[in-house]
Amino acid sequence: SPQQIFGTATKTYYPSITGINPEDVYTVTIMPCNDKKYEADLEAMEVNGLRQIDAVLTTRELAKMIKDAKIKFADLEGGEHDPAMGEYSGAGVIFGATGGVMEA
């Protein structure tokens, strides 16, 4: 799944270009359903004894955390993307649309 691909990249590729120990990387994903929590816990999803995804929050859980913390996105300062994984394209915009995965 895309979640596990992301986890593998953050525990292998990212440490290899930054010099960080993979055991020091804690990966959290934000997913729309609870099934991703189950998937992340599967023993088959471990690589070299490391879980590729350490924690999964549902979008509902994240929304509640943002609301409880009274975060107002319009009031936040701008920032820069992480240069280690900072390349991106506009394909992510169409990803959630019907047929978007195929087109992206």
Task: List strands and helices in order, with pairings.
Elements: H1 2-11, H2 13-18, E1 28-31, H3 35-41, E2 46-47, E3 50-51, E4 55-58, H4 59-68, H5 91-94, H6 100-103
Parallel strand pairs: 1-4
Antiparallel strand pairs: 2-3
Characterization of this structure:
By secondary structure, this protein is of the alpha+beta class. The protein has helices spanning 2-11, 13-18, 35-41, 59-68, 91-94, 100-103; strands at 28-31, 46-47, 50-51, 55-58. The protein has a two-stranded parallel sheet with strand order 1-4. The longest helix has 10 residues, at 2-11. The chain starts with a helix and ends with a helix.
Strand content: 5-15%
Largest sheet: 2 strands, parallel
Strand order of the largest sheet: 1-4
At CATH's second level, what is the architecture?
Answer: 3-Layer(aba) Sandwich
Our count of helices gives 6
**N-to-C terminal Cα separation, in Å?**
16 Å
Quickly list its features:
104 residues, alpha+beta, Rossmann fold, two-stranded antiparallel sheet, 4 strands
